[in-house]
Structure formats: C-alpha cells, structure tokens
Amino acid sequence: MPLNSVNTNAGAMVALQSLNRTTDELSATQKRISTGYRVADARDDGAAYAVAERIRGDMAATNSANQQLGGVKGLLDVTNTALQNVSTTLNKLKEIVVKLADGTITSEQRTQYQAQAKQLTNNVKAFIGDASYNGLNILDDTAATAVKVITSGTGTYYSFSSYSALAQVYNAVSSANTWDQVSASAALTATGAVGTAITNVLTQLNNFGSYSNYIDSQITYNKAILDAQESGLGALIDADMAKESARLQALQIRQQLGTQALGIANQAPQALLSLFRG
Questions:
Q1: Is residue 28 a part of any domain in this protein?
Q2: What is the DSSP string of 114-125?
Q3: 204 alpha carbon, distance to own chain's centre
Q4: What's the rounded Cα separation, in Å, for the pair 182 and 74?
Q5: Same domain flag for 251 and 132
Q6: Residue 148 bridge partners (DSSP)
Q7: To 5 degrees, how large is the angle CA 154–CA 158–CA 163?
Q8: pTM of the predicted model, to two decimals?
Q9: Which of 20, 116, 139, 248 could form a disulfide bond with 131, CB atoms 3.0-4.6 angstroms apart?
Q10: In this structure, is residue 27 part of a structural domain?
C-alpha cells in the first residue's frame, strides 16, 4: 500500500474503525443506563434473556396464585367471623334454655324465654346465611363439598371441606322457642340439641381456623418465593449502574479523542500539496 496517497487514507480508515467501535460500545452503555438492564432484549444476551423470560413467567404465575389466595383468605375470614358469632349466640341460647329447663318458672316467664330463644335462633340462621364472600358461602353448603384452592404457579392445590351449618347447627336448635321443661332439660345434655350444636360449631371453628392458618402461611411462603425470584432475576439481567456510569464517561472521552484523531487523519493528504509548491 502506498504510504502517501490521495486515493487511500489508511490512517483515516483506522481512526474511523476505532471511532465506530467506540460509538457502538457507547450506544450499548447508554442503553443499559436508560433501561437499567444489562440484558434488555434477546440481542444483548439471547440465553440470559430466555432464562429471564421463564423466570418472569414463573413470577407472574406465583403472583396470580397469591392474588387468588387473598380471595380465599377473605372467604375464610368471613366464615370464621360468622362461626364466632354463632358460637356466642349459642352460648346465650344455652343461658335461656337453662331457664326453660327450670320447672319453677311461670307460664308467662316461659313464654318470654321462648320468645328470646326464637330471636337467638333467628340470629344463628342469619349469621350462617350472611357468611358470603364474593358470592360464595362455604358455611351454608348442604352438600359439604370439597373446596379446591390453587396455591402456587405450578398448579398445586389445597383442598378443604365446606360445611352445612344450617343442617348441623341451626336445625338442632330451631325449635327452641317451643321447648317445655322436659325438652329444654334434654337439650342441655352433651348429646342434646344445644350441646350438639355447640360441639359442632367449636369443631368447625377449629377446622376453619386451621384452613386460615394454612392459607396465611402459603401467602407468606409465596411472597418469599417471589422475593427470591426477583433477586435472582436482578442478578441475571440488571445493569451495574455505578460501573456503567464510569464506563460512559470513559467512552465519551474516547469518542471525543477518536473524532479528533479522525479529523487529523483526514487532513493528512493536505500535506502532500506542499510537495508541489515551487
């Protein structure tokens, strides 16, 4: 290659190639800084981007499962509140039934106590019927069907049984307003109407409390999984902003120097003119 030529400027070619490389690196660095990602798309690192997309899908699924669990938590909270109210009401009913079982009360007093018993049993029925959340009542299910709850983004389920509280609790005490001394006395035994209703409610309070505890623990676990997934995703694709900031400054200086070097190289052919001056 000729050392002095007006047709071929080797110095300018080298300077231009260097400047182009610097510009490409600067564009990549600016992209990392503007997006915050080392891997913003498949062009940056196809393998890492594919892994990141899979993790994002897993995170979306886990987050969706947690949202559904939040709804189940609300349903169970409503159910437990209703059961607690039923339990409190049955305890009050038991007080009234004790009085109905007393053979020394007058007919007028019995009528008054029976009226109170009627009001309390109506309250029991209302609490059961009102235990609805998002259109679902698992406390008033005559079939006592299994409730399947999705707990994770991988399709894992947790199942628990609903309850027929009207049949198992309310029906046992619904006729309390008609009980005489003998009927009221029988209802107070462990296997009597009031005793059975109270036992059934306490059993379900224990069951639904356990269901609630499981759902709470699963929500907490899913949140921990999401945090771990997010941390791993960040380590895979996030840009080191401090490092990129320092690199940006260095590349900007290199770009300025490369531009100057290209300008100098482009002026080199002008020196050949001096050879032709007389």
A1: no
A2: HHHHHHHHHHHH
A3: 27
A4: 43
A5: no
A6: 159
A7: 155
A8: 0.77
A9: 139
A10: no
**Per-residue pLDDT reduced to its tens digit, 235-258:** 888 888 888 888 888 888 888 888
For residues 177 and 55, state if they share a domain: yes
Residues 260 and 130 in one domain: no
Confirm if 173 and 214 have CB atoms less than 8 A apart. no
Helix pair angle (241-267, 10-35), 10° resolution = 160
Q: Are residues 71 and 184 in the same domain?
A: yes
In one-letter notation, the amino acid at residue 180 is D
Residue pair 211/77 in contact by the 8 Å Cβ criterion: no
> What pLDDT, on the 0 to 100 scale, is given for residue 3?
60
Q: Which alpha helices (H) appear in the chain, and where do they start and end?
A: 10-35, 46-100, 107-129, 165, 171-173, 181-187, 193-237, 241-267
pLDDT at 170 > cutoff 90: yes
CA distances for 7 relative to 10, 12, 13, angstroms: 10, 12, 12
Residue 184 belongs to a domain:
yes
Q: What is the reported pLDDT for 40? A: 84
User: Could you list the residue range(s) of the whole structural domain that residue 246 is in?
Assistant: 241-268
Residue 90 in contact with residue 194, Cβ under 8 Å?
Answer: yes
One domain, residues 144 and 223:
yes
Q: Are 261 and 169 members of one domain?
A: no
Q: Which residue has the higher pLDDT, 195 or 268?
A: 195
Can you say whether the dihedral through the CA atoms of 13, 18, 19, 24 is positive or negative? Answer: positive
Tokens standing for residue 165: 């509280």
